[in-house]
Amino acid sequence: MNSPISPSAEADDGARANEVRGAVRSTLQLGGSLMVTYAIALGIRALMPRYLGPEAFGYFNWSEAFAATFFVATNLGLETYIRKEVPVRPDHASDFFGTTMLLRLGMTLILMVALALVLHTTGEPPEVQHLVQWFAVAQSLIVVNASMAALLHSKGKVAGLSVSNVITKIVWGGGLALMAAFGVGLQWLAVPMVLSEAVKLVISWKLAKEHLDLKFRIDIAATKKVMKACLPFFLTAAALACNGRTDMSLLGKLASKEEVGWYGGAFSIAGLTFLISPIFGWVLMPMMSRAAARSPQELSHLTRRSLEGVLAFTVPVMMAMVLGADLWVRLMCGPGFEPAALPLRVLSPIFVMAYVTMVSSIWLTMSNKEWWVTLAATMGAVVNPLFNLALIPWLYGRIGPSGGATATALSMFLTEVIVTVLFLGRMGRNSFDRRSLLMVAKTAVVCGVCVALDRVLSGAGVAPWPRLGLTAATYVVGVLGTGAVRPAELLQVVRMARQRGGNGASSEVAVSAAPTA
């Protein structure tokens, strides 16, 4: 005779099902806003290289990278802490929010003075100094907005935030387009970013007060405990930020700002593969926090399936970037950026590994292995500059135009390989099971066939667009025919999202049922 199912077990199963439906709906809501914001960003990515040219575009990218590196300290590791703790303790947000805001304000004032002194001492042109300072103001707002967004994602309230993302992106993109139309100088091109982030902060504050009853209070004792818990997250964020920004600074000093322009052009195109990356922090991390609170087995299962989804999305985009690099550079950047094609090919595989490390780092964080994430990220931050110092002078002299940019791309590629191996090695069998390993093997075979087909078609003189179309069709047929990608499972997710089920209520049930982390 079948054993009866207890009411509490049924309630837990119902809460989890509703939580998944809510997470899927949140993903689709945020994904919809991302599509709009990326469409705007795509237009700006095509506009700025054409408006500025390689050298000025290099100064533009270098200034943004330099300001972001300078303001790494203001991150505090708070965003990751929020996504780990607030999903299961919503009221905890008010314990540290006010004090950390004041702390960040004080740090910003000190850093702005230090930044001005550094720029004056190094003798950068006045317009570049001005541009860096505007980017620094924008960066200080970006850091605060990231924490505000993390609070809303942790609560599962994303509809207002999705609208906010679209509004602020219109402010940014429209501002830059107007400046380009009126021929505004380089030093003012960061102002639209400052305005858009200021608008986002106002909207996010109102949403946080509405949905989390967020209060601005000073609690030094509670904040000290939070800062102690944030230490590994802060070191990880600092390492990752330096790893992604110091390369442009070194390239500008060891090669030329024109090389930075080519690298920036390649990076802006390859960065389009980060289309769904915000979903990881916005939806997946809070969901994995709740799964970890229930059981390690549930967390591992969710991680494996997430890695499958990541590969299903990123690998075809990576293949399109590699095989169509010359085409994308001409389309997105225009004349003068042809040397960016080689760095783009080197950069493209990095983003597959970056997505894998995103999921892996969430698993390690939820498994209370934060310091391992910090160790791997710190190692990457140390290794990447060393690779740049060794490779930039060598390839810059050997290859000629784009040699420095290619060296920087190769340095990032090698660094990402090391970090990915460290993460997956620490996860062990929690990363891939037999099903996902078969998916990886089948996808690799299909990619090999596509590369061979592209070489044959290229040798036969087939034009770029038809060649890319035939290769894409081959990839789709290959992954579907081998079962590497399963459409039925994707349709199941869409059906789940269409079901009605009270997102807010289900989130509350899931949170109240979960133990305190």
TrEMBL record:
**Annotated Pfam families:** Polysacc_synt_3
Q: Which topology term describes how it sits in the membrane?
A: Multi-pass membrane protein
Q: Which InterPro entries match?
A: Poly_Biosynth_Transport (IPR050833)
Q: Does the keyword Glycoprotein apply?
A: no
Primary residence: membrane
- Where exactly are the transmembrane stretches of this chain? 30-48, 60-82, 102-119, 131-152, 159-182, 266-285, 306-324, 344-364, 371-396, 402-425
Q: Can you tell which superkingdom this protein's organism belongs to? A: Bacteria
The entry's localization annotation reads: Cell membrane
One annotated Gene Ontology cellular component of this protein: plasma membrane
Which keywords does this chain's UniProt record carry?
A: Cell membrane, Membrane, Transmembrane, Transmembrane helix
- What NCBIfam families does its record include? Wzx_EPS
Record-linked PANTHER family: O-ANTIGEN TRANSPORTER-RELATED, PST FAMILY PREDICTED COLANIC ACID TRANSPORTER
What is the protein's name according to its record? Flippase
Native organism = Corallococcus exercitus
